[in-house]
Design brief:
The protein is about 65% helix and about 5% strand. By secondary structure, it is mostly helical. The chain folds into six domains: about 5-190, Rossmann fold (3-Layer(aba) Sandwich), CATH 3.40.50.300; about 205-350, no CATH class; about 375-445; about 455-540, no CATH class; about 540-625, Serine Threonine Protein Phosphatase 5, Tetratricopeptide repeat; about 785-875, no CATH class. The strands form two sheets. A five-stranded parallel sheet has the order 2-3-4-1-5, sandwiched between helices. A hairpin with an 8-residue loop joins strand 7 (about 325-330) and strand 8 (about 335-340). Helix 4 (about 90-100) crosses helix 5 (about 110-120), helix 16 crosses helix 20 and helix 41 packs antiparallel against helix 42. The chain starts with about 25 loop residues before the first helix and ends with a helix. The relative contact order is 0.04.
C-alpha cells in the first residue's frame, strides 16, 4: 500500500511528525513488541510511557508506518495534545482526516467518528497526553478530564481500529486507570551498543575510531538517551567531541560514576551544555520557550520574546541541529510554524521566572489578537485554510486570552474573546468555546457585582460586552446591557467613582445606546438619548476634547433626524456641530460633517447647497491628503450630476476623479467598482469606447487581485457590451472566460451568465448551443432566490390551471388573466404554452425555448399536473 495516499502531509491535521534524520537505529526488539501489541484487532488501548526525548514518538510512528504498509491499518491519525492544550483537538484531527477539510465538529461528531473507525482500520495516536493530565502544563479541570477519558474509551472500543496514548514520564499516570483494558508499555534507553551506532550516525569531523571511543565514554556516563546524545553532538559543532566530554567531566562531579543514567538527568546535562553554545540575545531568552504551547508562528513567537524573526532564525541553529526545534508548513502563509520539543520546554520551564512569565503574557496577547483578527477578516479569501491556521496556533491563541484574564485586563479580554469565539465556531470546538466563555464570565462577575457600586473598570467591561454584542450583531442583547448600565449610572450609588470620569462614561453609554436604538427602528428614542448625552457634556468644562466630542454627538443626532425625516432639525444639528469646532483643527471631523450636511441638503432638494457642502469637504480633504475621502466626495458629485436634468459627461468626469483617488490610496475594490459604474453611465451616454475602456480596467483590477466572483461579473458585463456592439465572437470569449472564473472561485455559476451565452449563440446562429445554454440558465434560475419570487407571483394562476386540468371549469378570472397575457407582447409566448397545456399537451418541448422565469412557470405547472391531487396541494402550500 502506498502510504502517501493515506497519511496527511506535515503541518496538516492528523499528520505524523517527521521521522528522525538518521532513521530508526536500534529498537528492533521494541518495534516487534509494539507491532505485536497493535496487530490484534480487538484489544484494549496501548499507553506508552518513557522520559522526555527517550524516543517514544519516533518508535511509535516508525511502527505505525510499517503497520500501514502491511495492511493492518488503512489510516493513521496523530494528535499532539501538548501542541494545542485543547481536549477537543483529538476529535478535530479525526474529523479532518476521516471526513475532509470541510468537516466541522458537532454534537453528533463522536458517533460519526466511531462509525467511521469501525468501518476502516485506523490507528489513532494521542501524544504528549501528560500535558493535560494532573500536574501538566495545560492540565484540564476534573470534569473536562473525565470527559476526555470517556471519549478515549469510546475510541478504543472501535475495533478494528486501535488507540495508542503516549505520555512523558517513567510511570503510568494514576488517572490512566480510567481507561478500560489498558495495556501499558514502558520504553527505556537504548542499549549501549545501539546508542553508539545512533551517535555515529549523526556524523562528525573526527575519525570513526575516535568518535566511537568518545561516544562510548559519554554513553557510559549518560546512558543510551537518544535526544541527549544528539544535543551533545549539536553542541560539538565547530569543536571536538573529546572537548565536550572533557568539559562535562570537569563541570559535573560524579559523572563518571554513572549517576546521570538515572532519572533523566542525561537530558538536563546535555541541554545545560548545549545552552552554552547559543549566542545572545537568544541565550537570555531560552527560558521564554516554556511560555508557548508546543511552538509558535516564526514571526509571532520572537516578537513576544522581544526578538526579531531574523535573530531567531540565525541564533536557534544549535537547537534545530539537536532536533529540539523544527519548522513545519503553515499553509497558506510562507512563514513556518516552529515546533518546540517537549523536552526543551520542560528544561526551559525551570528557567522561566514568574515575573518573566507576566512580562511575556503582557507582550503576547497583542500580536495574537492582531493575528486572529486578520484571519477573521480574511475568511472569504482564506476559505478552508483560515480555520486550519487558527487550529495550528490554537494553544497560543487560547494562551492570549488566559494571559489577559491573568493580568486582570478583563475589558480587553472581551475584544479578544469575541474574535476567538467566532473562530472556534468555525472549528466546532464547543468545549473550548465553553471554557473560554466561562473563564471570561467568571472574571467579569468580580468586576460587575449586582449589589455594589461598579468601578470604572467594571463600566468599561460592560461597555466592551455591549460593543461585542453590537458587532455580533445581537442588538437586542446589546440594548438590554446598555439600558441597564444607563439606569445604574443615573443612581447616586450606582458607581464607585464620580466627577468628570463618571460623566464621560455616562455619555459613552448613552451614545452607544442611541446607536442601538437607531438601528433597531427607534430613532425617536435615540434622539432623546443623544440629547441627554449633550446635556451631560454641558456640565463639563468645554476644553478641546469636550468640544470635539460635542461635534461628534451633533453629527450622530443629524443622522437620527434624517431617519426621522426631520430635515430642519438635521440641518440645525449639522450647523451646531460645525460651530462646536470653531477655532479647532479637527479637519477630518469637519470634512465628515460637511458631507453629512450635503446629504441633508439633497433630502431638501437643494442641489446647490449640497454642492457647496461637498466642495467644503473636498477642500478640507485635499489639505489633509485624505484620498479615500476624496474618492467618496467625487462619487457624491457624480450622483448630483445624475439628478435630473442629468449631466452624464460631468458624472463621468467626477467618477474618473474618484477612481484616480481610489487608485492612489490602494483601494482596489472601490476603484474597480467605480470603473464599472463609469462604464454603465458611458453606455447610457452612447460612449461605447469609454464604456469598453473602463470595463477592461475593472476586469484587469479584479484579475490582478484574484477576486474571482467580481471578475466573473465584470467579464459578463464586458461580454454584454460586445454583444450590444455586434461583436458576438468577442462576447463569446469574454463570457467563456467568465465561466472559467466561476470554476476558479469554486462558486456556482450565475444563471444570468448561462442566459448570456444562450443569447450570444443565438446571435451567432448556433441554435443547438443556444438551446443548451438556455436549459442550463433555467436550471440555475430554478435554484436561485429569484425563483421563489416568480412562483409566488404566479401561484394563483398555476393552482387554477391545475384544477382546470383535473376537470373543474375554468373560472372567468383565470380566463381573463390568460387573455391579458396573450395580448401582452412580453408574455404572449407564455400564454400560448399555458393554452397548449390546457389542451392536453404535456411535452418538455413546451418550455425548451422559454426564458428562465417563464420556463419555471410552465415546468412547475407540468410537475403539479403529474402529481396525485393531495401531493399537488401539498406542493402548492409549500
Amino acid at each position: 500500500m502506498d502510504s502517501n495516499h493515506v497519511l496527511p502531509a506535515l503541518g496538516q491535521p492528523g499528520a505524523l511528525p517527521p521521522a528522525p534524520s538518521t532513521g530508526l537505529i536500534g529498537r528492533r526488539a521494541e518495534a516487534v513488541e509494539l507491532a505485536s501489541l497493535l496487530s490484534p484487532a480487538d484489544e484494549g488501548p496501548l499507553w506508552v510511557t518513557g522520559y522526555h526525548g527517550i524516543g517514544k514518538t519516533a518508535l511509535l510512528t516508525h511502527v505505525a508506518r510499517s503497520l500501514l504498509q502491511s495492511g493492518r491499518f488503512e489510516r493513521i491519525v496523530y494528535t499532539s495534545i501538548g501542541r494545542t492544550g485543547v481536549a477537543d483537538s483529538v476529535l478535530y484531527d479525526l474529523g479532518q482526516v476521516l471526513f475532509g477539510s470541510g468537516y466541522r465538529l458537532t454534537e453528533d461528531s463522536p458517533a460519526q467518528i466511531e462509525q467511521a473507525l469501525q468501518a476502516v482500520p485506523t490507528l489513532v495516536v494521542w501524544d504528549d497526553a501528560d500535558a493535560i493530565l494532573y500536574g501538566g502544563s495545560l492540565a484540564l479541570e476534573q470534569s473536562a478530564l473525565v470527559t476526555w477519558y470517556q471519549l478515549a474509551n469510546r475510541i478504543a472500543a472501535c475495533s478494528p481500529s486501535a488507540l495508542c496514548v503516549i505520555s512523558n514520564g517513567a510511570a503510568l499516570p494514576p488517572s490512566a486507570r480510567r481507561l478500560a483494558r489498558l495495556r501499558p508499555y514502558a520504553l527505556g534507553p537504548l542499549q549501549d551498543q545501539e546508542a553508539i551506532e545512533l551517535a555515529l550516525a549523526f556524523g562528525g569531523s573526527a575519525s570513526e575510531a575516535q568518535s566511537r571511543e568518545t561516544w562510548s565514554q559519554l554513553i557510559q556516563w549518560l546512558g543510551g538517551h537518544p535526544l541527549a546524545l544528539r544535543s551533545l553532538w549539536a553542541a560539538a559543532e565547530g569543536t571536538l567531541l573529546q572537548d565536550v566530554a572533557s568539559q562535562l567531566a570537569a563541570r559535573i562531579p560524579g559523572l563518571s560514576s554513572g549517576e546521570a543514567r538515572f532519572r533523566n538527568r542525561a537530558m538536563d546535562i546535555s541541554l545545560d551544555h548545549l545552552a552554552t553554545r547559543v549566542a545572545p540575545p537568544l541565550a537570555e531568552h531560552l527560558g521564554d520557550l516554556a511560555f508557548f504551547v508546543g511552538g509558535f508562528v516564526e514571526n509571532l513567537g520572537p516578537e513576544t520574546m522581544g526578538l526579531s524573526p531574523e535573530q531567531w532564525t540565525a541564533l536557534s541553529e544549535p537547537l534545530s541541529r539537536a532536533g529540539l526545534t523544527w519548522n513545519e508548513p503553515f499553509d497558506p502563509l510562507t512563514i513556518p510554524w516552529v515546533r518546540l520539543h517537549p523536552a526543551l520546554q520542560q528544561w526551559s520551564a525551570r528557567k522561566l521566572t514568574g515575573s518573566r512569565r507576566s512580562e511575556l503574557a503582557a507582550a503576547q496577547h497583542g500580536p495574537y489578537l492582531g493575528f486572529i483578527t486578520w484571519v477573521l477578516n480574511s475568511a472569504p479569501r482564506l476559505r478552508d485554510s483560515g480555520p486550519r491556521l487558527i487550529y495550528r496556533e490554537l494553544g497560543n491563541i487560547a494562551l492570549g486570552l488566559n494571559s489577559l484574564l491573568a493580568l486582570n485586563l478583563v475589558a480587553e479580554a472581551v475584544d479578544y474573546a469575541w474574535v476567538y469565539s467566532s473562530l472556534l465556531k468555525e472549528l466546532g470546538l464547543a468545549a473550548e468555546t465553553k471554557r473560554a466563555n466561562d473563564a471570561l464570565n467568571l472574571a467579569a462577575e468580580a468586576l460587575l457585582p449586582q449589589d455594589q457600586p461598579w468601578s470604572r473598570a467594571g463600566v468599561a467591561l460592560a461597555l466592551k460586552q455591549a460593543e461585542a454584542l453590537m458587532a455580533a450583531p445581537d442588538l437586542q442583547k446589546a440594548g438590554a446591557v446598555l439600558s441597564q448600565l444607563a439606569v445604574r449610572m443615573e443612581k447616586s450609588d450606582g458607581l464607585s467613582y464620580h466627577g468628570r470620569e463618571a460623566t464621560e462614561d455616562h455619555v459613552r453609554v448613552l451614545v452607544a445606546l442611541a446607536r442601538v436604538l437607531r438601528d433597531t427602528g427607534h430613532p425617536d428614542v435615540a434622539a432623546r438619548a443623544l440629547s441627554d448625552a449633550l446635556n451631560l457634556l454641558n456640565r463639563i468644562e468645554a476644553d478641546d476634547s469636550v468640544r470635539t466630542e460635542r461635534a461628534r454627538l451633533y453629527g450622530e443626532l443629524l443622522e437620527v433626524y434624517l431617519r426621522l425625516g426631520q430635515l430642519e432639525h438635521a440641518s440645525d444639528a449639522g450647523e451646531r456641530a460645525l460651530e462646536s469646532l470653531e477655532g479647532l483643527e479637527a479637519t477630518r471631523l469637519r470634512s465628515e460633517l460637511h458631507v453629512r450636511r450635503a446629504y441633508v441638503a439633497l433630502r431638501q432638494n437643494s442641489d446647490d447647497r449640497a454642492r457647496e457642502q461637498l466642495q467644503h469637504a473636498a477642500d478640507l480633504m485635499t489639505s489633509e491628503e485624505d484620498l479615500p475621502g476624496l474618492a467618496s466626495v467625487e462619487s457624491q458629485f457624480a450622483a448630483l450630476a445624475m439628478r435630473p436634468p442629468a449631466d452624464l459627461p460631468d458624472a463621468i468626469r467626477h467618477l474618473e476623479s474618484a477612481a484616480s483617488y481610489a487608485h492612489q490610496s490602494h483601494q482596489w475594490p472601490t476603484e474597480a467598482q467605480l470603473h464599472t459604474q463609469i462604464a454603465q453611465i458611458a453606455a447610457q451616454n452612447g460612449s461605447d469606447e469609454t464604456c469598453e475602456d473602463h470595463l477592461r480596467e475593472a476586469v484587469s483590477i479584479y484579475e490582478d487581485n484574484r477576486a474571482f466572483g467580481s471578475l466573473l461579473r465584470a467579464r459578463a458585463s464586458l461580454s454584454e457590451h460586445y454583444l450590444r456592439s455586434g461583436r458576438a465572437g468577442e462576447a463569446q470569449q469574454a463570457a467563456e472566460r467568465a465561466l472559467a472564473d466561476a470554476g476558479d472561485s469554486q462558486s456556482a455559476v450565475p444563471w444570468e451568465l448561462y442566459l448570456l451565452l444562450s443569447r450570444i449563440a443565438e446571435t451567432q446562429g448556433d441554435r443547438e448551443a443556444s438551446t443548451r445554454w438556455l436549459a442550463a440558465a433555467r436550471e440555475g434560475f430554478s435554484a436561485s432566490s429569484a425563483a421563489e419570487a416568480v412562483l409566488s407571483r404566479w401561484e394563483p394562476l398555476i393552482t387554477a390551471l391545475v384544477q382546470s386540468v383535473r376537470g373543474e371549469a375554468l373560472d372567468s378570472d383565470t380566463a381573463s388573466t390568460l387573455e391579458s397575457l396573450e395580448n401582452n407582447e412580453q408574455t404572449k409566448s407564455l400564454a400560448r404554452r399555458l393554452w397548449r397545456i390546457l389542451s392536453g399537451e404535456r411535452s418538455t418541448e413546451l418550455y425548451a425555448d422559454l426564458q428562465p422565469g417563464d420556463g419555471l412557470v410552465v415546468r412547475t405547472l407540468l410537475d403539479r399536473i403529474g402529481l396525485p391531487p393531495a401531493a399537488a396541494e401539498s406542493m402548492a402550500d409549500q
